[in-house]
Specification:
- Two copies of one chain form a homodimer.
- Chain A is of the alpha/beta class.
- The first copy, chain A, is built from 14 helices and eleven strands.
- In chain A, the strands form two sheets. A nine-stranded mixed β-sheet of chain A has the order 3-2-4-7-1-8-11-10-9, with helices on both faces. In chain A, strands 5-6 form a two-stranded antiparallel sheet.
- In chain A, a hairpin with a 2-residue loop joins strand 5 and strand 6.
- In chain A, helix 1 packs across helix 3.
- The longest helix of chain A has 17 residues.
- The two termini of chain A are 21 Å apart.
- Chains A and B meet through helix 2, helix 3, strand 3, helix 4 and strand 8 of A and helix 2, helix 3, strand 3, helix 4 and strand 8 of B.
């Protein structure tokens, strides 16, 4: 197995891109990443996407993106793992380079969600859950998360307002991210006054429906210097799964898949949670931030919210999360999110995070979650000395 | 890179499985393949599927199939490349084993198409074509193939009846395949009298809309003997892409992607087309059989139909195709087809093809095509002495 590094990154601004098709979004990100790496060709292209069929009437995105990006002939496929599609595509690219099947690989995550009416998007997103045993009974994806949040508050004695720090932190960090959908701060008061969506989840507990694409270029670490002096090493790459239906889990408040995925990653990288400098987690809803922090070993069970209340998740805290805005404020174009997380982590490790730069960041972890924790992809990235 | 072999195969009968959900279909095939290999666990699961979102309201099939098959925790993702999804998933499994990332991998292709009305399925299948530049103008997938066939007949001077041998051969070979959807012979007369769908493509030029799943188990060849004495070696695995839109091609009658994919496979296996004993090609429509034979080097341009007319594609011919019925008569559950082709090739190489057994078959080639040749996945399989 070869060591693998990221030699180029690219992203589009997240937002409502009504004038831009899914192929354009993907192409913009691929183009930016190829330029960043200084490459003009690659051996393979992996596209992370969840809903191109449902929302753009277009499957076959591997060949389509390859074609539109001028990479005809290249090996290309689409990888789907619900909202974890982006990082799952990165994992496939990692496997191809690590195993020696390819030297230069492009990974792009892309999602185009705003061309369709809201209810259609909500139905499409529910396809991350169990169609026969959850969705058929009327539950949407936000409703499932609302049930988890309600139970969490009940079990551990938190009030809804205790989740405010997650949203406030994400928005604060998005201010200096030129690619963020919501680059403005919010106050705790504004969080509390936000419109209810599915009790107890309100508008500011939730990540938005949006469009975007992000890309990275991979190559063997030993070849990385030939391309760039800003390479970021992939110290670990891991996928784990759990039951799709939440009701099938022994304990719905503990993300076994996330814990297993993180354990595999820590083992591969040979590090402990204490050595991780920052954590780009999957804050699709504030409750997911708490559960992720706990599953990944940054907080005891029931203490994820406590960690946020104590300010430890901010840029100045013990384990900064969502350092460029997270899913909440950068935005959550679902199949692209996992790659956005990795691009942002790479910016931190390259020292290019601007006003949000973490001093001496050496190890960053990303965790991309599909469904309510059914697919979890964890990457640990390391600054090359 | 490690050498990789297939140590287990499994398949469901292809048909209209109205009483069986997509997760059941996948599970049945996975179960059969695991039993065949004598394994109870695996390191990763790759699911090939195109339309679970559009036709079953279910994405996130990697985790779903893993969950339902009792493989909780396992690394699992869905791979999509239109009708080439099945073989693309096999390619991902191959990369994972060859590169040393996994020792035992399950690959399953699954599609459930018959629960929805025909027009919805036709619209869903059109997502393999270019949504913005082909489908928007009213073309369906069968219509695109009809245009190709019309042009082919015009260029090379064939009549529609010249394509009969492809359908007749497929149906004849399906008779002894217990998993085939249409296990009965058809005559040339019946072919000619079939109902027109999109001129010149009639019902018997076309593969059916259907449900099915097929699975294979992979492991390094050097470990294969520990599991089975019927291992089949993967001598080559290759993906190539072409433009998605047919009108973007220099010559729509030559499948550049198929030619490139086959060239890569021949090079990896170190063989020539002359050494291939049989070819499981992608006969979604009879015209595709002709174009595939030509692109893969078994016939000169315009001579694919001639090869069929001369009887060279039958079990007794120079290059037998669709030895167990092909897409036409075994059936074409799109995302499963690529794995069915490989399962059938493995049966031939294991000497288990029953009355359809080819004597002394040593090298079999499969070619799975997504769209009108935009993604092409070629595998060459070899009997282990």
């Amino acid at each position: 197995m070869r060591d693998v590094s990221i030699i180029g990154i690219g992203q589009t601004k997240v937002g409502e891109h009504w004038d831009t098709s899914i192929r354009h979004l993907a192409w913009y990100a691929v183009q930016a990443a190829m330029k960043d790496a200084g490459i003009e060709r690659a051996d393979a292209l992996y596209v992370g996407n969840m809903l191109s069929g449902e929302l753009s009437g277009q499957e076959h995105l591997g060949a389509l993106v390859a074609d539109f990006a001028g990479l005809q002939g290249i090996e290309a496929v689409k990888i789907e793992a619900a909202c974890a599609s982006g990082a799952a595509a990165l994992r496939m690219g990692y496997i191809a380079v690590a195993g020696g099947m390819a030297d230069v690989v492009i990974v792009v995550g892309v999602e185009k969600m705003t061309d369709r009416p809201g209810p259609e998007v909500t139905s499409a997103l529910a396809m991350a859950a169990d169609a026969d045993y959850e969705v058929l009974h009327g539950v949407s994806f936000v409703a499932l998360n609302a049930l988890l949040m309600q139970r969490y508050m009940h079990e551990y004695g938190y009030a809804h307002e205790d989740f405010a720090p997650f949203a406030v932190n994400a928005h604060r960090n998005a201010v200096h991210n030129p690619y963020a959908m919501f680059p403005f701060p919010i106050t705790r008061e504004r969080f509390l006054a936000a419109r209810m969506i599915a009790s107890p989840i309100n508008l500011l507990d939730s990540s938005p429906i949006c469009d975007g694409a992000a890309a990275v270029i991979l190559c063997p670490t030993e070849q990385a210097r030939a391309y760039t002096d800003k390479a970021v090493r992939i110290a670990a790459s891991a996928i784990a799964t759990d039951t799709v239906a939440v009701h099938d889990r022994r304990d719905p408040l503990f993300l076994e898949g996330a814990a297993l995925s993180a354990r595999r990653a820590y083992k591969q990288a040979g590090v402990t949670p204490q050595e991780i400098d920052f954590f780009e987690l999957h804050d699709a809803f504030t409750i997911m931030s708490a559960l992720s922090l706990e599953a990944a070993g940054f907080a005891e069970r029931g203490q994820g919210v406590r960690l946020a209340l104590e300010g430890e998740i901010t840029l100045e805290g013990r384990i900064p999360i969502c350092t460029m805005g997270g899913l909440k404020a950068r935005g959550h174009p679902v199949g692209a999110t996992g790659v956005y997380q990795v691009v942002e982590a790479a910016l931190q490790l390259r020292g290019e995070a601007g006003p949000n730069q973490l001093p001496n960041a050496r190890l960053g972890m990303t965790q991309n979650i599909g469904g309510s924790g059914a697919t979890v992809v964890t990457h640990i990235l390391e600054r090359l000395a």
